[in-house]
Design a protein that fits this description.
Shape: globular
Radius of gyration: 25 Å
Strand order of the largest sheet: 5-6-8-7
Distance between the termini: 79 Å
Structural class: mainly alpha
Length: 495
Protein backbone atom coordinates (compact mmCIF):
# COMPACT_ATOMS: atom_id res chain seq x y z
CA UNK A 1 0.00 0.00 0.00
CA UNK A 2 2.80 2.37 0.96
CA UNK A 3 4.61 1.67 -2.30
CA UNK A 4 1.43 2.28 -4.31
CA UNK A 5 0.98 5.67 -2.62
CA UNK A 6 4.59 6.60 -3.37
CA UNK A 7 4.17 5.55 -6.98
CA UNK A 8 0.92 7.53 -7.28
CA UNK A 9 2.54 10.67 -5.84
CA UNK A 10 5.55 10.27 -8.13
CA UNK A 11 3.29 9.88 -11.16
CA UNK A 12 1.27 12.99 -10.30
CA UNK A 13 4.00 15.05 -8.61
CA UNK A 14 3.17 18.23 -10.54
CA UNK A 15 -0.43 18.09 -9.31
CA UNK A 16 0.64 17.51 -5.73
CA UNK A 17 3.16 20.33 -6.04
CA UNK A 18 0.34 22.69 -6.96
CA UNK A 19 -1.72 21.48 -4.00
CA UNK A 20 1.27 21.96 -1.69
CA UNK A 21 1.63 25.61 -2.66
CA UNK A 22 -2.05 26.20 -1.95
CA UNK A 23 -1.74 24.49 1.42
CA UNK A 24 1.28 26.52 2.42
CA UNK A 25 -0.45 29.81 1.68
CA UNK A 26 -4.19 29.16 2.09
CA UNK A 27 -4.51 31.54 5.05
CA UNK A 28 -2.79 34.34 3.17
CA UNK A 29 -5.35 33.92 0.38
CA UNK A 30 -8.01 34.18 3.06
CA UNK A 31 -6.30 37.15 4.72
CA UNK A 32 -6.11 39.21 1.53
CA UNK A 33 -9.70 38.42 0.60
CA UNK A 34 -11.10 41.59 2.13
CA UNK A 35 -12.58 44.87 0.99
CA UNK A 36 -9.92 47.58 1.02
CA UNK A 37 -7.85 49.61 -1.43
CA UNK A 38 -5.91 47.02 -3.45
CA UNK A 39 -4.91 46.52 -7.09
CA UNK A 40 -7.15 43.46 -7.14
CA UNK A 41 -10.18 45.54 -6.19
CA UNK A 42 -9.28 48.04 -8.93
CA UNK A 43 -9.00 45.36 -11.61
CA UNK A 44 -12.14 43.59 -10.38
CA UNK A 45 -14.10 46.85 -10.66
CA UNK A 46 -12.89 47.33 -14.24
CA UNK A 47 -13.63 43.73 -15.22
CA UNK A 48 -17.05 43.91 -13.55
CA UNK A 49 -17.84 47.06 -15.55
CA UNK A 50 -16.75 45.36 -18.78
CA UNK A 51 -19.04 42.45 -17.95
CA UNK A 52 -21.88 44.95 -17.48
CA UNK A 53 -21.34 46.57 -20.87
CA UNK A 54 -18.96 49.43 -19.98
CA UNK A 55 -16.24 49.90 -22.63
CA UNK A 56 -12.65 49.48 -21.45
CA UNK A 57 -11.26 52.78 -22.70
CA UNK A 58 -13.93 55.12 -24.07
CA UNK A 59 -16.04 54.77 -20.90
CA UNK A 60 -13.34 53.83 -18.39
CA UNK A 61 -9.78 54.87 -17.50
CA UNK A 62 -7.88 51.60 -17.85
CA UNK A 63 -4.17 52.10 -18.55
CA UNK A 64 -3.25 48.56 -19.60
CA UNK A 65 -3.69 46.53 -22.77
CA UNK A 66 -6.93 44.52 -22.73
CA UNK A 67 -6.17 40.76 -22.63
CA UNK A 68 -6.29 40.40 -18.84
CA UNK A 69 -9.72 42.04 -18.71
CA UNK A 70 -11.04 40.03 -21.66
CA UNK A 71 -10.06 36.76 -19.97
CA UNK A 72 -11.44 37.97 -16.63
CA UNK A 73 -14.72 38.90 -18.28
CA UNK A 74 -14.91 35.39 -19.76
CA UNK A 75 -14.44 33.95 -16.25
CA UNK A 76 -17.31 36.07 -14.93
CA UNK A 77 -19.57 35.09 -17.83
CA UNK A 78 -18.95 31.36 -17.40
CA UNK A 79 -18.74 31.00 -13.62
CA UNK A 80 -20.56 33.97 -12.08
CA UNK A 81 -20.34 37.75 -11.89
CA UNK A 82 -18.83 38.17 -8.43
CA UNK A 83 -15.55 38.58 -6.59
CA UNK A 84 -15.32 34.94 -5.50
CA UNK A 85 -15.05 33.82 -9.14
CA UNK A 86 -12.57 36.62 -9.80
CA UNK A 87 -10.43 35.45 -6.87
CA UNK A 88 -10.25 31.98 -8.40
CA UNK A 89 -9.03 33.64 -11.61
CA UNK A 90 -6.14 35.17 -9.64
CA UNK A 91 -5.31 31.91 -7.83
CA UNK A 92 -5.15 30.04 -11.15
CA UNK A 93 -2.70 32.64 -12.48
CA UNK A 94 -0.48 32.21 -9.43
CA UNK A 95 -0.64 28.41 -9.62
CA UNK A 96 0.39 28.42 -13.28
CA UNK A 97 3.31 30.77 -12.50
CA UNK A 98 4.49 28.29 -9.86
CA UNK A 99 4.16 25.34 -12.26
CA UNK A 100 5.99 27.18 -15.05
CA UNK A 101 8.85 27.93 -12.66
CA UNK A 102 8.89 24.25 -11.74
CA UNK A 103 8.84 23.16 -15.38
CA UNK A 104 11.79 25.41 -16.29
CA UNK A 105 13.82 23.90 -13.45
CA UNK A 106 12.89 20.35 -14.47
CA UNK A 107 13.96 21.10 -18.06
CA UNK A 108 17.29 22.30 -16.63
CA UNK A 109 17.63 18.88 -15.01
CA UNK A 110 16.89 19.99 -11.46
CA UNK A 111 15.27 16.97 -9.71
CA UNK A 112 11.57 17.61 -9.11
CA UNK A 113 11.65 17.14 -5.33
CA UNK A 114 14.57 19.51 -4.90
CA UNK A 115 13.00 22.02 -7.31
CA UNK A 116 9.86 22.10 -5.18
CA UNK A 117 11.92 22.61 -2.04
CA UNK A 118 13.87 25.45 -3.68
CA UNK A 119 10.69 27.18 -4.86
CA UNK A 120 9.06 26.91 -1.44
CA UNK A 121 12.15 28.14 0.39
CA UNK A 122 13.49 30.73 -2.05
CA UNK A 123 10.86 31.77 -4.55
CA UNK A 124 7.69 32.02 -2.50
CA UNK A 125 8.92 34.59 0.04
CA UNK A 126 9.03 36.89 -2.99
CA UNK A 127 6.08 35.68 -5.01
CA UNK A 128 3.67 35.62 -2.07
CA UNK A 129 3.28 39.32 -2.84
CA UNK A 130 1.14 38.10 -5.72
CA UNK A 131 -1.51 37.00 -3.26
CA UNK A 132 -1.83 40.58 -2.06
CA UNK A 133 -2.27 41.85 -5.63
CA UNK A 134 -4.54 38.89 -6.46
CA UNK A 135 -5.95 38.78 -9.99
CA UNK A 136 -3.72 41.31 -11.69
CA UNK A 137 -2.54 42.08 -15.25
CA UNK A 138 1.11 42.18 -14.10
CA UNK A 139 0.86 38.63 -12.75
CA UNK A 140 -0.69 37.37 -15.98
CA UNK A 141 2.04 39.09 -18.01
CA UNK A 142 4.71 37.32 -15.91
CA UNK A 143 2.88 34.03 -16.52
CA UNK A 144 3.20 34.53 -20.29
CA UNK A 145 6.83 35.64 -19.82
CA UNK A 146 7.69 32.36 -18.08
CA UNK A 147 5.74 30.49 -20.78
CA UNK A 148 7.91 32.13 -23.44
CA UNK A 149 11.08 31.12 -21.61
CA UNK A 150 9.71 27.58 -21.31
CA UNK A 151 9.36 27.46 -25.09
CA UNK A 152 13.05 28.29 -25.56
CA UNK A 153 14.36 25.57 -23.24
CA UNK A 154 14.31 22.35 -25.24
CA UNK A 155 15.42 18.89 -24.16
CA UNK A 156 19.16 19.31 -24.72
CA UNK A 157 19.63 22.92 -25.83
CA UNK A 158 18.10 26.37 -26.17
CA UNK A 159 16.24 27.19 -29.38
CA UNK A 160 14.17 30.18 -30.48
CA UNK A 161 11.06 29.15 -32.42
CA UNK A 162 9.56 31.96 -34.49
CA UNK A 163 5.88 31.05 -34.00
CA UNK A 164 6.20 30.25 -30.30
CA UNK A 165 8.08 33.45 -29.48
CA UNK A 166 5.89 35.61 -31.69
CA UNK A 167 2.80 34.35 -29.87
CA UNK A 168 4.38 34.63 -26.39
CA UNK A 169 5.55 38.20 -27.06
CA UNK A 170 2.14 39.18 -28.40
CA UNK A 171 0.36 37.68 -25.38
CA UNK A 172 2.59 39.57 -22.95
CA UNK A 173 2.15 42.85 -24.83
CA UNK A 174 -1.62 42.33 -25.01
CA UNK A 175 -1.63 41.91 -21.22
CA UNK A 176 0.75 44.70 -20.15
CA UNK A 177 2.35 46.85 -22.84
CA UNK A 178 5.61 47.78 -21.14
CA UNK A 179 6.31 44.22 -19.94
CA UNK A 180 5.75 43.01 -23.51
CA UNK A 181 8.39 45.46 -24.75
CA UNK A 182 10.85 44.34 -22.05
CA UNK A 183 10.35 40.68 -23.04
CA UNK A 184 10.96 41.50 -26.70
CA UNK A 185 14.16 43.32 -25.71
CA UNK A 186 15.44 40.28 -23.79
CA UNK A 187 14.37 37.91 -26.56
CA UNK A 188 16.12 40.01 -29.21
CA UNK A 189 19.38 40.11 -27.26
CA UNK A 190 19.32 36.35 -26.62
CA UNK A 191 18.47 35.53 -30.24
CA UNK A 192 21.44 37.59 -31.42
CA UNK A 193 23.71 35.83 -28.92
CA UNK A 194 22.39 32.32 -29.57
CA UNK A 195 22.75 32.52 -33.36
CA UNK A 196 25.63 35.02 -33.47
CA UNK A 197 27.64 32.84 -35.87
CA UNK A 198 24.75 32.72 -38.37
CA UNK A 199 23.73 36.28 -39.35
CA UNK A 200 21.04 35.09 -41.79
CA UNK A 201 19.47 32.95 -39.06
CA UNK A 202 19.43 35.91 -36.65
CA UNK A 203 17.70 38.15 -39.19
CA UNK A 204 15.25 35.42 -40.24
CA UNK A 205 14.23 34.60 -36.68
CA UNK A 206 13.90 38.19 -35.48
CA UNK A 207 11.93 39.29 -38.56
CA UNK A 208 9.69 36.24 -38.20
CA UNK A 209 9.05 36.91 -34.50
CA UNK A 210 8.30 40.60 -35.11
CA UNK A 211 5.92 39.76 -37.97
CA UNK A 212 3.96 37.21 -35.89
CA UNK A 213 3.92 39.69 -33.00
CA UNK A 214 2.64 42.53 -35.22
CA UNK A 215 -0.01 40.37 -36.91
CA UNK A 216 -1.49 39.23 -33.57
CA UNK A 217 -1.21 42.72 -32.08
CA UNK A 218 -2.78 44.23 -35.17
CA UNK A 219 -5.76 41.86 -34.85
CA UNK A 220 -6.80 42.93 -31.36
CA UNK A 221 -6.00 46.59 -32.04
CA UNK A 222 -8.30 46.26 -35.05
CA UNK A 223 -11.03 44.97 -32.72
CA UNK A 224 -10.58 48.03 -30.50
CA UNK A 225 -10.75 50.29 -33.58
CA UNK A 226 -14.01 48.69 -34.73
CA UNK A 227 -15.43 49.26 -31.24
CA UNK A 228 -14.47 52.94 -31.39
CA UNK A 229 -11.93 52.46 -28.61
CA UNK A 230 -8.65 53.17 -30.41
CA UNK A 231 -8.26 56.89 -29.67
CA UNK A 232 -8.93 56.47 -25.95
CA UNK A 233 -6.78 53.32 -25.83
CA UNK A 234 -3.77 55.24 -27.18
CA UNK A 235 -4.46 58.14 -24.81
CA UNK A 236 -4.69 56.07 -21.62
CA UNK A 237 -2.23 53.26 -22.38
CA UNK A 238 0.58 55.14 -24.12
CA UNK A 239 0.37 58.94 -24.03
CA UNK A 240 -0.78 59.14 -20.42
CA UNK A 241 1.53 56.40 -19.16
CA UNK A 242 4.53 57.99 -20.84
CA UNK A 243 3.70 61.36 -19.31
CA UNK A 244 3.25 59.84 -15.84
CA UNK A 245 6.50 57.86 -16.04
CA UNK A 246 8.59 60.91 -16.89
CA UNK A 247 7.11 62.99 -14.05
CA UNK A 248 6.64 60.46 -11.23
CA UNK A 249 9.71 58.23 -10.95
CA UNK A 250 9.66 56.98 -7.34
CA UNK A 251 11.83 54.80 -5.12
CA UNK A 252 9.35 54.28 -2.29
CA UNK A 253 11.53 52.20 0.01
CA UNK A 254 14.86 50.48 0.44
CA UNK A 255 13.61 47.21 -1.04
CA UNK A 256 15.33 48.27 -4.26
CA UNK A 257 18.43 46.61 -2.76
CA UNK A 258 16.74 43.28 -3.55
CA UNK A 259 17.85 43.90 -7.13
CA UNK A 260 21.29 42.86 -5.91
CA UNK A 261 20.08 39.23 -5.61
CA UNK A 262 20.30 38.33 -9.33
CA UNK A 263 23.53 40.31 -9.66
CA UNK A 264 25.05 38.25 -6.83
CA UNK A 265 23.74 35.07 -8.51
CA UNK A 266 25.54 35.95 -11.76
CA UNK A 267 28.75 36.76 -9.89
CA UNK A 268 28.54 33.37 -8.15
CA UNK A 269 27.92 31.70 -11.52
CA UNK A 270 31.01 33.37 -12.98
CA UNK A 271 33.07 32.35 -9.94
CA UNK A 272 31.86 28.75 -10.20
CA UNK A 273 32.76 28.65 -13.88
CA UNK A 274 36.16 30.32 -13.67
CA UNK A 275 37.55 29.53 -10.24
CA UNK A 276 35.94 26.27 -9.09
CA UNK A 277 36.55 22.84 -10.49
CA UNK A 278 32.88 21.79 -10.43
CA UNK A 279 30.84 19.46 -12.64
CA UNK A 280 28.35 21.94 -13.98
CA UNK A 281 25.32 21.52 -16.23
CA UNK A 282 26.32 20.85 -19.86
CA UNK A 283 25.01 24.20 -21.12
CA UNK A 284 25.87 26.19 -17.99
CA UNK A 285 27.31 29.22 -19.83
CA UNK A 286 24.53 29.39 -22.41
CA UNK A 287 21.87 29.00 -19.71
CA UNK A 288 23.48 31.80 -17.67
CA UNK A 289 23.51 34.12 -20.69
CA UNK A 290 19.90 33.13 -21.44
CA UNK A 291 18.78 34.14 -17.95
CA UNK A 292 20.93 37.28 -18.01
CA UNK A 293 19.15 38.50 -21.16
CA UNK A 294 15.71 38.06 -19.63
CA UNK A 295 16.67 38.98 -16.07
CA UNK A 296 18.03 42.45 -16.68
CA UNK A 297 15.09 43.39 -18.90
CA UNK A 298 12.63 41.99 -16.34
CA UNK A 299 14.12 44.28 -13.67
CA UNK A 300 12.70 47.21 -15.68
CA UNK A 301 9.21 46.08 -14.62
CA UNK A 302 9.55 48.20 -11.47
CA UNK A 303 9.67 51.42 -13.52
CA UNK A 304 8.45 54.08 -12.75
CA UNK A 305 7.24 53.27 -9.20
CA UNK A 306 9.82 51.06 -7.51
CA UNK A 307 7.71 49.90 -4.57
CA UNK A 308 7.84 46.48 -2.88
CA UNK A 309 5.19 44.95 -5.15
CA UNK A 310 6.85 45.91 -8.44
CA UNK A 311 10.32 45.01 -7.14
CA UNK A 312 9.21 41.52 -6.08
CA UNK A 313 7.31 41.10 -9.34
CA UNK A 314 10.48 41.91 -11.27
CA UNK A 315 12.39 39.27 -9.29
CA UNK A 316 10.14 36.32 -10.21
CA UNK A 317 12.16 35.62 -13.36
CA UNK A 318 15.70 35.97 -11.91
CA UNK A 319 14.73 33.94 -8.83
CA UNK A 320 14.44 30.90 -11.13
CA UNK A 321 18.09 31.40 -12.10
CA UNK A 322 19.05 31.77 -8.44
CA UNK A 323 17.44 28.38 -7.82
CA UNK A 324 19.37 26.91 -10.76
CA UNK A 325 22.65 28.18 -9.28
CA UNK A 326 21.72 26.76 -5.88
CA UNK A 327 21.17 23.38 -7.53
CA UNK A 328 24.66 23.47 -9.06
CA UNK A 329 26.08 23.78 -5.54
CA UNK A 330 23.86 21.01 -4.23
CA UNK A 331 24.70 18.69 -7.11
CA UNK A 332 28.37 19.12 -6.26
CA UNK A 333 27.91 18.60 -2.53
CA UNK A 334 25.70 15.53 -2.27
CA UNK A 335 27.30 14.47 0.98
CA UNK A 336 26.02 17.71 2.55
CA UNK A 337 22.57 17.70 0.94
CA UNK A 338 21.39 14.12 1.09
CA UNK A 339 17.81 12.94 0.76
CA UNK A 340 17.32 12.82 4.53
CA UNK A 341 18.20 16.52 4.81
CA UNK A 342 15.76 17.37 2.03
CA UNK A 343 13.01 15.45 3.81
CA UNK A 344 13.72 17.38 7.01
CA UNK A 345 13.60 20.67 5.10
CA UNK A 346 10.23 19.76 3.55
CA UNK A 347 8.75 18.71 6.91
CA UNK A 348 10.20 21.79 8.60
CA UNK A 349 8.90 24.16 5.96
CA UNK A 350 5.40 22.68 5.97
CA UNK A 351 5.36 22.91 9.77
CA UNK A 352 6.42 26.57 9.68
CA UNK A 353 3.90 27.28 6.91
CA UNK A 354 1.15 25.71 9.00
CA UNK A 355 2.08 27.87 12.00
CA UNK A 356 2.16 31.00 9.81
CA UNK A 357 -1.25 30.11 8.42
CA UNK A 358 -2.69 29.69 11.90
CA UNK A 359 -1.26 33.09 12.89
CA UNK A 360 -2.71 34.75 9.79
CA UNK A 361 -6.05 33.06 10.45
CA UNK A 362 -5.97 34.25 14.05
CA UNK A 363 -5.19 37.83 12.97
CA UNK A 364 -8.03 37.70 10.45
CA UNK A 365 -10.56 36.44 12.97
CA UNK A 366 -9.37 38.76 15.74
CA UNK A 367 -9.95 41.77 13.49
CA UNK A 368 -13.54 40.75 13.10
CA UNK A 369 -13.58 39.92 9.42
CA UNK A 370 -16.75 38.30 8.27
CA UNK A 371 -18.49 37.54 4.99
CA UNK A 372 -20.56 40.33 3.55
CA UNK A 373 -24.15 39.43 2.75
CA UNK A 374 -24.12 40.90 -0.73
CA UNK A 375 -24.71 38.24 -3.38
CA UNK A 376 -23.07 40.43 -5.99
CA UNK A 377 -20.59 41.80 -6.63
CA UNK A 378 -18.73 41.14 -3.36
CA UNK A 379 -19.76 37.56 -2.70
CA UNK A 380 -16.85 35.77 -1.05
CA UNK A 381 -15.20 38.91 0.32
CA UNK A 382 -14.74 39.93 3.93
CA UNK A 383 -14.86 43.23 5.76
CA UNK A 384 -14.64 44.61 9.24
CA UNK A 385 -17.79 45.89 10.87
CA UNK A 386 -16.32 49.38 10.46
CA UNK A 387 -15.87 48.90 6.73
CA UNK A 388 -19.38 47.51 6.29
CA UNK A 389 -20.83 50.46 8.22
CA UNK A 390 -18.78 52.83 6.08
CA UNK A 391 -19.99 51.18 2.87
CA UNK A 392 -23.62 51.42 3.99
CA UNK A 393 -23.23 55.04 5.08
CA UNK A 394 -21.61 56.21 1.85
CA UNK A 395 -23.87 54.24 -0.52
CA UNK A 396 -27.00 55.41 1.32
CA UNK A 397 -25.76 59.01 1.03
CA UNK A 398 -25.29 58.58 -2.73
CA UNK A 399 -28.74 57.04 -3.16
CA UNK A 400 -30.39 59.83 -1.14
CA UNK A 401 -28.81 62.59 -3.22
CA UNK A 402 -29.63 60.84 -6.48
CA UNK A 403 -33.31 60.78 -5.46
CA UNK A 404 -33.06 64.59 -5.45
CA UNK A 405 -31.45 64.48 -8.94
CA UNK A 406 -28.07 65.42 -7.50
CA UNK A 407 -24.77 63.82 -8.41
CA UNK A 408 -22.15 62.48 -5.97
CA UNK A 409 -18.49 62.16 -6.98
CA UNK A 410 -16.20 60.17 -4.69
CA UNK A 411 -12.81 61.72 -5.39
CA UNK A 412 -10.74 59.04 -3.71
CA UNK A 413 -8.77 55.88 -4.48
CA UNK A 414 -11.59 54.14 -2.56
CA UNK A 415 -14.20 55.23 -5.10
CA UNK A 416 -14.49 51.86 -6.84
CA UNK A 417 -15.43 50.15 -3.56
CA UNK A 418 -18.72 52.06 -3.55
CA UNK A 419 -19.31 52.65 -7.26
CA UNK A 420 -19.04 48.94 -8.07
CA UNK A 421 -21.65 48.17 -5.45
CA UNK A 422 -23.87 50.97 -6.76
CA UNK A 423 -23.26 49.82 -10.36
CA UNK A 424 -22.15 53.35 -11.27
CA UNK A 425 -19.51 54.46 -13.73
CA UNK A 426 -17.87 57.89 -13.61
CA UNK A 427 -14.75 56.96 -15.63
CA UNK A 428 -11.89 59.20 -14.49
CA UNK A 429 -13.48 59.72 -11.07
CA UNK A 430 -13.78 56.00 -10.25
CA UNK A 431 -10.00 55.66 -10.07
CA UNK A 432 -8.84 59.27 -9.68
CA UNK A 433 -5.10 58.66 -9.69
CA UNK A 434 -2.32 60.47 -11.49
CA UNK A 435 -1.21 58.20 -14.32
CA UNK A 436 -4.76 56.92 -14.92
CA UNK A 437 -6.03 60.02 -16.69
CA UNK A 438 -4.24 59.97 -20.02
CA UNK A 439 -2.37 62.85 -21.66
CA UNK A 440 -2.69 66.10 -19.65
CA UNK A 441 -5.31 64.28 -17.62
CA UNK A 442 -5.00 66.35 -14.46
CA UNK A 443 -5.97 69.53 -16.31
CA UNK A 444 -8.82 67.76 -18.13
CA UNK A 445 -10.28 66.31 -14.90
CA UNK A 446 -9.97 69.68 -13.17
CA UNK A 447 -11.94 71.31 -16.02
CA UNK A 448 -14.64 68.63 -15.61
CA UNK A 449 -14.98 69.61 -11.94
CA UNK A 450 -15.12 73.31 -12.82
CA UNK A 451 -18.06 72.63 -15.15
CA UNK A 452 -20.05 70.60 -12.60
CA UNK A 453 -23.31 71.86 -11.07
CA UNK A 454 -25.41 70.67 -8.15
CA UNK A 455 -22.80 68.05 -7.30
CA UNK A 456 -21.39 66.73 -4.04
CA UNK A 457 -17.72 65.72 -3.89
CA UNK A 458 -16.40 63.37 -1.22
CA UNK A 459 -12.67 63.47 -0.55
CA UNK A 460 -10.15 62.69 2.17
CA UNK A 461 -6.75 64.15 2.96
CA UNK A 462 -4.75 60.92 3.24
CA UNK A 463 -3.90 58.66 0.30
CA UNK A 464 -2.49 55.14 0.52
CA UNK A 465 -1.24 55.12 -3.06
CA UNK A 466 0.21 58.66 -2.94
CA UNK A 467 -1.07 59.12 -6.51
CA UNK A 468 -4.09 61.32 -5.84
CA UNK A 469 -3.95 64.85 -7.24
CA UNK A 470 -3.21 67.34 -4.48
CA UNK A 471 -3.67 70.13 -7.03
CA UNK A 472 -7.32 69.14 -7.60
CA UNK A 473 -7.94 68.51 -3.90
CA UNK A 474 -6.64 71.98 -3.04
CA UNK A 475 -8.84 73.50 -5.75
CA UNK A 476 -11.95 71.78 -4.36
CA UNK A 477 -11.17 72.88 -0.79
CA UNK A 478 -10.43 76.44 -1.86
CA UNK A 479 -13.41 77.01 -4.15
CA UNK A 480 -16.35 75.01 -2.82
CA UNK A 481 -18.26 74.91 0.45
CA UNK A 482 -17.66 72.16 2.95
CA UNK A 483 -21.11 70.97 4.08
CA UNK A 484 -20.15 68.22 6.52
CA UNK A 485 -18.48 64.85 6.89
CA UNK A 486 -19.51 61.25 6.27
CA UNK A 487 -17.46 58.26 7.42
CA UNK A 488 -13.90 59.59 6.99
CA UNK A 489 -14.80 61.71 3.94
CA UNK A 490 -15.20 65.48 3.79
CA UNK A 491 -18.27 66.65 1.84
CA UNK A 492 -17.99 69.59 -0.56
CA UNK A 493 -20.89 71.02 -2.57
CA UNK A 494 -20.81 72.60 -6.04
CA UNK A 495 -23.88 74.78 -6.65
Amino acid sequence: MKEKIKEHIKKHQVLYSALLILFCFFAQIFYYNRIEVTDELFTFANTYKLHNGINLYSQNNIIDTPLFFWIGNLFLKVFGNNFFVYKIYGIIIFEVIFLLQLNILRKLKVPTVRAIVYILLISLPFTKTLFGSGANYNNLAILFWLLGMNFIIKKDDLHVNIIEQGIASALIFATKQNIGIYYLMGLTIFTIYNYRKELKTVIKKLLGIYIVFLVITGMWIGILAMQGELKDFINYCFLGIGEFATKHLKFQDFNIVLYAIPIIAFIIAWFMKKKCNLELNDNFTKISVFFACFTFTSLLIGYPIFNIYHIKLALIVPIVYCIYIAEQFVANAKELFGLSIIKKIIIGYISIALIVNIVYLGITLSRGFYEINYKEPYFGMFATKEMQEKINEVTNFVKLKEKNNQKVIIFSEESNIYQTLLNKNYQDFDLPLLGNWGHKGEERVLNKIKNMKDTFILLKDKSLTEQESNKIKDYIKGNYSKTGEIADFQIYYIK
